[in-house]
């Protein structure tokens, strides 16, 4: 009888632990799907208001023609995954240490994604998503990548400039970059050039590949201050 009671208590406790584990996996601070401290609404914003896309531009630095457009899975998936994985593996600009396809899809493709193509092939991209849920979902975040073969051509700045207008036109009112690592020299330079407000520094925020711990800078941009008719180049 005693053994039977003990067994019943043990099984009951195991059942409690199982339910507790399931609960914590769905809590906001343990969401694998969102991969961040908050659970976000995964719906993308309506891109029909972006009537100026696709848009052809000429890069001032190289005179190369590029087309800015909405991400198309059939055209862009493999090349974008290759580009994001390469940037992650480089270990100098993003906090992730690896990037498989499932992680890529849940992280990079969860909301709105825009790409730059040259001769029909992706050369760079950025996502736009809320940085916070609910009452602060009017503030967005973005993640930029440039294909290895097309760096140092001015594509990064081209993407940043167009991101501001696109984010505003998607209905966001502010942009906040949480972790621009000190090793991300290109993004630091562009943020400062374009007038982002540098609002903070997080000491030793990232353990970067082959470099140890580095600080991260935080930037904010008031999207409501943009000229309504401005057409970024």
Automatic annotation (TrEMBL):
<dbReference type="InterPro" id="IPR052742">
    <property type="entry name" value="Mito_N-acetyltransferase"/>
</dbReference>
<dbReference type="GO" id="GO:0016747">
    <property type="term" value="F:acyltransferase activity, transferring groups other than amino-acyl groups"/>
</dbReference>
<feature type="domain" description="N-acetyltransferase">
    <location>
        <begin position="68"/>
        <end position="220"/>
    </location>
</feature>
<feature type="signal peptide">
    <location>
        <begin position="1"/>
        <end position="22"/>
    </location>
</feature>
<keyword id="KW-0732">Signal</keyword>
<dbReference type="InterPro" id="IPR016181">
    <property type="entry name" value="Acyl_CoA_acyltransferase"/>
</dbReference>
<dbReference type="GO" id="GO:0005634">
    <property type="term" value="C:nucleus"/>
</dbReference>
<protein>
    <recommendedName>
        <fullName>N-acetyltransferase domain-containing protein</fullName>
    </recommendedName>
</protein>
<dbReference type="InterPro" id="IPR000182">
    <property type="entry name" value="GNAT_dom"/>
</dbReference>
<dbReference type="Pfam" id="PF00583">
    <property type="entry name" value="Acetyltransf_1"/>
</dbReference>
């Amino acid at each position: 009888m005693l053994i039977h009671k003990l067994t019943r208590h043990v099984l009951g406790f195991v059942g409690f632990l199982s339910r507790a584990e399931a609960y914590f996996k769905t809590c906001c601070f343990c969401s694998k799907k969102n991969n961040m401290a908050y659970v976000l609404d995964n719906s993308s914003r309506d891109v029909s208001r972006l009537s100026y896309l696709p848009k052809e531009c000429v890069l001032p630095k190289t005179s190369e023609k590029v087309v800015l457009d909405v991400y198309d899975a059939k055209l862009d998936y493999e090349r974008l995954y290759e580009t994001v994985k390469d940037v992650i593996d480089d270990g100098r600009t993003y906090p992730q240490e690896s990037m498989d396809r499932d992680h890529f899809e849940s992280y990079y493709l969860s909301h709105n994604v825009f790409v730059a193509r040259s001769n029909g092939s992706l050369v760079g991209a950025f996502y736009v998503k809320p940085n916070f849920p609910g009452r602060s979902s009017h503030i967005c975040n973005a993640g930029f990548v440039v294909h290895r073969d097309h760096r140092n051509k001015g594509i990064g700045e081209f993407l940043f400039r167009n991101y501001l207008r696109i984010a505003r036109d998607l209905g966001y009112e502010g942009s906040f970059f949480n972790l621009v690592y000190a090793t991300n020299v290109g993004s630091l330079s562009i943020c400062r050039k374009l007038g982002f407000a540098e609002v903070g520094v997080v000491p030793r925020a990232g353990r970067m590949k082959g470099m140890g711990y580095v600080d991260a800078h935080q930037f904010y941009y008031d999207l409501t201050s943009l000229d309504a008719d401005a057409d970024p180049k």
